[in-house]
Amino acid sequence: MRIFKIFLLLFPISLFAQGGFVKGKKGNDYIIVTKNGYHFAVGPTYTMTKKTVTGELSDNNGSRGTYFVDPAGDEGFFAEAGLVQFPTWKGIPIKALKKSRIMDYWEFALGFRQLAGSESTTIHYKNALGEIYDTISASGSFRNGFLYGRASAHSIIFVGKKKIDQARKYFIDQSLGFNVDYLMFPSEQAYDDPNFVSPVSTRYHAPLVAQFHYSLGFGIRIN
Question: Which residue has the higher pLDDT, 28 or 14?
Answer without folding.
Answer: 14
